[in-house]
Structure formats: C-alpha cells, structure tokens
Design goal:
Layout: H1 3-20, E1 29-34, E2 39-42, E3 58-61, H2 78-88, E4 92-95, H3 99-107, H4 116-119, H5 134-138, H6 141-156, E5 165-168, E6 172-177, H7 180-204, H8 212-220
Antiparallel strand pairs: 1-2, 1-4, 2-3, 4-6, 5-6
C-alpha cells in the first residue's frame, strides 16, 4: 500500500467516525497501520473533522515514533496508538469520548458482559485501566496511557483479539481492529453496549450474570477458526 493510499484510507475513516455521532468538536481520532511498511497514519491534532483533507493525515514510524513527511502535528494521542500497534499488531485504532462509554470510564466501572449482544463482539467484561500515577501523568502521559491499556488486558488474561476495547480510567474508550473501519465498528458497538448496560443497572442491578457457556458460544460462533456466522469469503 502506498503512503498516499494509506492517507486516503485514514482520511475517509476519520470522516466516517465523525458521521457516527461518537465524537464532537475535535475530540477523538482514527489511525491505521501498514505493518509491512512500518508506518501508521493518524489524524492531525486539533483539526475539525469537516476541515480535514487526505494531505492532512500524518504518517508515523512504528519503529521510532517520529513523523514522516508531514508538516502537521499529529494527534496528541499518537504515543498511545504507537504503544498499541507495537503491543497488539492490530491494523486500526479509534479513540472517542462517546457519552455512555465515557460515563463508565469516568466511573471506573467495567461494561459487564451480560448477554449475547455483548458476546458477539467482546468475550468478557470490557475492562477499565487503573488510574495513572502522578509520575505517569507528568512524564510521557500519552505513552503511559497506551501501556496501562496493554496492562489492563494482561491483568484480565485477555488477548487483543478476545477484547478489542478498553476504557481508560477517567478518560474514555479506545478500540482497535484489523482495519480502521473495523475499529470504528467496535467503537459503535461499545457505545451501544454501554448504553444497554447503563439501563440494565438501572432496571435490575443485581440480575444474575449469564452462564459462561452461552457467552462462549456466541463469541466463538463469530470469531476464531470454528466460526460459522455469516458467509465464507470467496
């Protein structure tokens, strides 16, 4: 994939994110990586979505974290994306401040896996990171945000494939996927699940959790080598 093509993909993905209603103002960002080329491209910092052009998208070296061939300043969340690309090898990353997912992040509450809708996308509760320490905030804040996301998955014994979303305590959600558009889909689903979970807690806070075998069935019928949901690729 050429650098121009990757810029175009990330431009379209950022415009698509804006159309989901998950972001407002200049909040949020989308990036996509080309691991073979050792680069990812991300939205520029502080530029409104309706003012973006493909040329505004900023390429970043996955090896060094340095900007490549751009005069634009990349998103302030770039070091977070960098750590996730290095740790997960994923293809796309999304960060939003979507309303209900951010409520759970600020409450430091996981989004519980309470049914099959959740299990179709995420194998367990969507975890929340621990709060960053003063030192982590004051030094390399955005990089440390990425590191605590990785830490949260390891703490829960989850892979980045089992769980393509994490809530950063007092901040907001990050999602990822094979592509930028897949990461956007996960961000949309996450916001829907957060809204449902909010209402379940209001209606029946002490409702029993579903059986693990039901969750596993729904997750693995869509994911993994034995998946049978949908159509086979031709």
């Amino acid at each position: 994939m050429s650098a121009r093509e990757l810029r175009e993909i990330v431009y379209e993905a950022n415009r698509a994110l804006a159309q989901t209603g998950l972001v407002m103002g200049t909040f949020g960002n989308v990036s996509q990586a080309d691991h073979a080329a050792g680069v990812f491209v991300i939205k520029p910092s502080g530029v409104r979505y309706d003012a973006l052009t493909p040329a505004d998208m900023v390429p970043i070296s996955i090896e060094t974290g340095n900007v490549i061939d751009s005069q634009r300043r990349p998103s302030s969340d770039t070091p977070t994306h960098l750590e996730l690309y290095r740790a997960f090898g994923c293809g796309g990353i999304v960060h939003t401040h979507s309303e209900y997912a951010t409520v759970f992040a600020q409450a430091r509450a996981p989004i519980r896996c309470m049914g099959t809708t959740h299990a179709d996308y995420f194998r367990a509760d969507v975890p929340v990171t621990r709060p960053l320490t003063r030192e982590e905030v004051e030094r390399d804040y955005e990089r440390n945000t990425g590191l605590v996301i990785v830490e949260a998955l390891r703490r829960e014994g989850l892979s980045c494939h089992d769980m393509a979303a994490v809530l950063v305590a007092n901040h907001g959600p990050f999602t990822w996927g094979d592509t930028a558009m897949a990461a956007i889909e996960h961000a949309e689903v996450l916001e829907y699940l957060a809204r449902v979970e909010w209402r379940v807690r209001a209606l029946a806070a002490d409702v029993p959790r579903p059986d693990a075998f039901l969750i596993e069935k729904h997750y693995f019928r869509k994911h993994g080598p034995q998946a049978y949901y949908g159509q086979k690729e031709q």
